[in-house]
Write a structure and sequence with these properties.
The chain has about 775 residues and is α/β, with parallel strands linked by helices. The chain binds 1-deoxynojirimycin. Belongs to the glycosyl hydrolase 3 family.
């Protein structure tokens, strides 16, 4: 165990510690609300199909609960890891005994039909009541067939692709006996230092909400009882992405307005889409750890949003309420968590060890325990586990499902859709046909483990992933050779070393073009992977400079799970392609883009800073009272840095193509929109280049004056369109007043009359298009 782990244990007596448009825009949760003169009164989200009343289910559960002791009930509220593939130390090695004694109702980190069947048999045949287990796992961006990391998928801005990736994940996971994934992670992240930025959909509220919906649809389908769908989990509720200084697990201190306007909407969208479960966050909100927050788990989640599923904690996060300084001991922490609205305790065994006593002491109402038990039993019932506990453990299906060719093809397709062309001076990409000798140089060029990034579930890191070198060799044109030299290292400790440089430079000298494959090691993002620098780690930057100095054309294929401040590369390397961690078929996907078999269409879901000193930086900032534009160039008393521009390196929504697109000025259906009305904004986009391409057309709005200050831009819609050379298409977005709602000065949610600016543009940023103006009237 780590030193930190030891210290925490000593502090808290933890038993375990885990790291663990068309035109018309899609209806947002807000548009599903009733409007009345500038007032938006939230209504309960549409009932998910699985929540429909089921008298038979109620009878079954009533009868079962009548036979349950308090120990049986607490067992249903307990989730433990199996002894392999855990995300943190496994300190409870008695889990099989715990299953037999009915003390655990759900297991995670166990998969394969055979293994889940074996564990299920213990629960069904060896316990007094025979209640089936629920099997969960972190299936985040693929189960066996690994798709690009979640941030990369979001960069596709293609909701069909995102849904497809989740669908394939569900097909594979369910075929291995799993019922439940701890995904989607819907935390808005605006601090590139935070390693978990790689796990979500980036910085934006609207895009993040659409991605959340697509993932929930992909995992759950429209029938929770089908054996090829799995329960989804919206996590980490809430505010986790706002960790101070980008340090994982750190304190969060944000206003309620920011919580409501920025961090909560993707969660609300997930509820609206029918997500079955929620996971609490490690952090505190307003001084209260999320697992003990009645405000979050009951007032907002249940009372305001009408969430009907169950809430699981994150790994030992009830226990962590002790070191947080919110509970004096584990027993009190368990009472606070249950009272707040937690239903299931992940790995901490706090409910297991203390809840019965808390009930006996009158500290916890039996009704509260019963409510949580019922929510969990309902989910097991809806999965069909009471009918047949082994229905997901089907070896024949498992064999026929994993790594299906069509899944691998989907992974390749989503991977190339996720890639973002950041720079392409002189059309350095796609590689010219005259480039006969290609040098792939850099630590990420032939590294299988890195291809699939962190949180790669049951993905094979050793043999299956196709590396960049392999992909480029396999897809090379006749007469083209592709050679490799590692050249540099991404390990922090290797900064200053030059060991591999000579070999790499020799290869560079005898090549026509250099594809530099650089970035971060796969585990430099994900959980517990924060950095204070966004530069290329190790000695990569030094080698990159030497490669450029050879005078050979250089293309940088960047691979990482966060925005990197590749400012030098942007100034000195002709072409940069961000490939994230592209997954099992990643090497083929990189080859498709680099050789021009696929025209890149990704756009950044997150702002890339020039330097870490600009963090947090995001496109929808406030204007301030002294915006830089108010001063003369170089003016002192405006909001700026002395040594760096305010502008990011690459804007949110930015990404190039091998073709070019022209935008007509936006037009509006009317100059004003009334309280009960709508307004349609349109622009015509033309492919002005020589090749077919896809473009993500984006709609931004600015509310000029409010009862509280408003962001300089907010994304309110997007549509990805495909255009042949010379082809034009008019894209229209329809807005209603409710789409312009926010948390107003008096903390009510709704829109306000006034003047708005609107852009239809290829990216965020004032220079991206000329705005039009409309009025919203009472
Ligand atoms: C801790 C992580 O924060 C969470 O995202 C994950 O689902 C659990 N560990 C389970 O592995």
């Amino acid at each position: 165990m780590t030193l930190i782990g030891v210290r925490l244990l000593a502090l808290a007596a933890l038993p375990v510690l885990g790291g663990c448009a068309t035109a018309a825009m899609e209806a947002s949760p807000v548009t599903a609300a009733t409007e009345a003169r500038g007032q938006v009164v939230p209504v309960e989200p549409a009932e998910p199909t699985w929540a429909a009343p089921d008298p038979e289910m109620d009878r079954t559960i009533d009868a079962l609960m009548a036979r349950m002791t308090i120990e049986d009930k607490v067992g249903q509220l307990t989730l433990l890891t199996s002894d392999w593939e855990s995300t943190g130390p496994t300190m409870r090695d008695t889990y099989k005994q715990d299953i037999r004694s009915g003390r655990v109702g759900a297991i995670f980190n166990a998969y394969t039909s055979a293994y889940t069947r074996e564990l299920q048999r213990l629960a069904v045949e060896e316990t007094r009541l025979g209640i089936p287990l629920l099997f969960g796992y972190d299936v985040i961006h693929g189960h066996r067939t690994i798709f690009p990391i979640s941030l990369g998928e979001a960069a596709s801005w293609d909701m069909t692709a995102v849904e497809k990736a989740a669908r394939v994940s569900a097909l594979e996971a369910s075929a291995e006996g799993l019922h439940w994934t701890f995904s989607p992670m819907v935390d808005i992240a605006r601090d590139a230092r935070w390693g978990r930025i790689s796990e979500g959909a980036g910085e934006d509220v609207y895009l993040g909400s659409q991605v959340a919906r697509a993932r929930v649809r992909g995992y759950q389908g429209d029938d929770l009882g089908a054996t090829d769908t799995i329960l989804a989990t919206a996590k980490h509720f809430a505010g986790y992405g706002a960790a101070q200084a980008g340090r994982d697990y750190h304190t969060v201190d944000i206003s309620e307005r920011t919580l409501r306007d920025v961090y909560l909407p993707p969660f609300e969208a997930a509820v609206d889409e029918g997500v079955a479960t929620f996971m609490t966050a490690f952090n505190e909100y307003d001084g209260v750890p999320a697992s003990g927050s009645r405000y979050l788990l009951t007032d907002v989640l249940r009372d305001q949003w009408g969430f009907d599923g169950f809430v699981v904690t994150d790994y030992t996060s009830i226990n962590e309420m002790v070191p947080h300084g919110y509970a004096k001991d584990l027993k009190q922490a368990g009472e606070q968590a249950l009272d707040a609205g937690v239903d299931m305790d992940m790995q901490g065994a706090v409910f297991m060890d203390h809840l019965a006593q808390s009930v006996a002491d009158g500290k916890v109402e039996m009704a509260a325990v019963d409510r949580a038990v019922r929510r969990i039993l309902e989910m097991k019932y809806r999965l069909g586990l009471f009918e047949d506990p082994y229905r997901y453990a089907d070896e024949a299906r498992e064999k026929a499902t994993l790594y299906k060719p069509e899944f691998l093809e989907a992974a390749r397709d989503v991977a190339r859709k996720s890639m973002v062309l950041l720079k392409n001076e002189g059309n350095a990409l796609p590689l010219a046909a005259s480039a006969k000798r290609i040098a792939v140089i850099g630590p990420l060029g032939n590294s299988k483990p890195d291809m699939i990034g962190s949180w790669a579930a049951a993905g094979d890191r050793g043999t299956r992933p196709v590396t960049v070198l392999e992909g480029m060799q396999a897809n090379a044109r006749d007469g083209v050779s592709v050679e490799y030299a590692k050249g540099a290292s991404y390990e922090f400790a290797d900064e200053g070393k030059t060991d591999g440089f000579a070999e790499a430079l020799a290869l560079a000298e005898r090549s026509d073009v250099i594809v530099a494959t650089m970035g971060e090691k796969w585990d430099m993002t994900g959980e517990a992977a924060s950095r204070t620098s966004l530069d290329l780690p190790g000695n990569q930057q030094a080698l990159l400079e030497k490669l450029v100095a050879t005078g050979k054309p250089v293309v940088l294929v960047l691979m990482s799970g966060r925005p990197n401040s590749v400012t030098w590369a942007n100034d000195n390397v002709p072409a940069i392609l961000h490939a994230w961690y592209p997954g099992t078929q990643g090497g083929h996907a990189v080859a498709d883009v680099v050789y021009g078999d696929y025209n890149p269409s990704g756009k950044l879901p997150v702002t890339f800073p020039r330097t870490v000193g600009q963090v947090p930086i995001h496109y929808d900032m406030k204007n301030t009272g002294r915006p830089i534009e108010l001063g003369e160039p170089g003016a002192k008393y405006v909001s700026r840095y002395l040594n760096t521009s305010n502008d990011p390196l690459y804007r949110f929504g930015y990404g190039l193509s091998y073709t070019s697109f022209a935008y007509s000025p936006a037009t509006l259906s009317a100059p004003t929109m009334g309280a009960g009305g709508s307004i349609t904004a349109s622009a015509t986009i033309t492919n002005t280049g020589d090749v077919a391409g896809e473009e993500v057309v984006q709609l931004y709005v600015r509310d000029l004056v409010g009862s509280v200050t408003r962001p300089v831009q907010e994304l309110k819609g997007f549509e990805k369109i495909a255009l042949q050379p010379g082809e034009s298409r008019t894209v229209s977005f329809t807005l209603k007043p409710a789409d312009l709602a926010f948390t107003r000065g008096d903390m009510s949610h709704g829109w306000e009359p006034g003047e708005f600016r609107l852009w239809i543009a290829p990216s965020s940023g004032a220079e991206a298009a000329t705005p039009v103006t409309f009025r919203l009237t009472e």
